[in-house]
């Protein structure tokens, strides 16, 4: 407010602008969305995918290792947590590069989601399937010859990553 007051002419009777909502409260039409964090592990032109099972979303589809951000968690901390939980590898937050972001409209529930795709510059540990109850198998696939079926926005994102694009939208009408 001091900066705003400094910009007003001396002696101005213009009212200072105040938010109609208490601090920390979103505006009524401000969207909230689920944030997904996805790990893109590439070895010799092949990308690591897991085949999902016993999940409410995309049963028996291939997908990169991924999960949702938890309340109060940074995007890099969430990705580090998911890598440990799903694959048993340790990644330092500073070793993650954001390689793509997809603003995805989920056809099932009509909600917007932000899907963030990270590549690690380094990690420690041996990749293992630490969630066999949610993942049939892990396998590296040629990035240009993915198996079927793959989660739709994942196929989209991998194509955009390959093309060098950092941001895209998926599922929204033009």
Provide a descriptive summary of the structure in words.
The chain is an alpha+beta fold and 174 residues long. The chain is built from 3 helices and 9 strands. It has helices at residues 2-7, 75-87, 152-162; strands at 34-39, 42-43, 46-52, 62-63, 66-68, 96-105, 112-120, 135-142, 167-170. Strands 5-1-7-6-9 form a 5-stranded mixed sheet.
Structural key phrases:
9 strands; 174 residues; 17% helix; disordered N terminus; five-stranded mixed sheet; alpha+beta; single chain
Question: Brief description of this entry?
Answer:
The protein has 174 residues and is of the alpha+beta class.
**Percent strand:** 25-35%
Distance between the termini: 40 Å
Helix content: 10-25%
Q: What integer value in Å does the Rg equal?
A: 21 Å
Overall pLDDT: 87
Overall number of strands: 9
Most strands sheet: 5 strands, mixed
Count of helical stretches:
3
User: What is the global morphology?
Assistant: globular
The order of strands across the largest sheet is: 5-1-7-6-9
In the predicted model, the low-confidence regions spanning at least 5 consecutive residues are 1-19
Compile the SSE list and pairings.
Layout: H1 2-7, E1 34-39, E2 42-43, E3 46-52, E4 62-63, E5 66-68, H2 75-87, E6 96-105, E7 112-120, E8 135-142, H3 152-162, E9 167-170
Parallel strand pairs: 1-7, 6-9
Antiparallel strand pairs: 1-5, 2-3, 3-4, 3-8, 6-7
């Amino acid at each position: 407010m001091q900066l705003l007051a400094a910009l007003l002419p001396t002696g101005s009777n213009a009212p200072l602008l105040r938010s109609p909502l208490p601090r920390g409260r979103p505006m009524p039409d401000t969207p909230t969305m689920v944030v997904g964090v996805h790990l893109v592990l590439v070895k010799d032109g092949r990308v690591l995918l897991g085949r999902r099972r016993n999940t409410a979303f995309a049963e028996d589809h291939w997908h990169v290792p991924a999960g949702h951000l938890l309340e109060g968690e940074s995007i890099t901390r969430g990705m580090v947590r998911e890598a440990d939980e799903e694959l048993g590898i340790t990644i330092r937050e500073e070793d993650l590069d954001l390689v793509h972001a997809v603003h995805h409209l989920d056809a099932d529930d009509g909600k917007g989601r932000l899907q963030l795709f990270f590549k690690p510059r380094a990690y420690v540990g041996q990749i293992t399937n630490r969630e066999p109850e949610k993942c049939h198998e892990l396998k590296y696939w040629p990035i240009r010859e993915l198996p079927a079926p793959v989660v739709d926005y994942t196929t989209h994102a991998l194509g955009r990553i390959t093309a060098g694009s950092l941001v895209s939208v998926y599922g929204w009408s033009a």
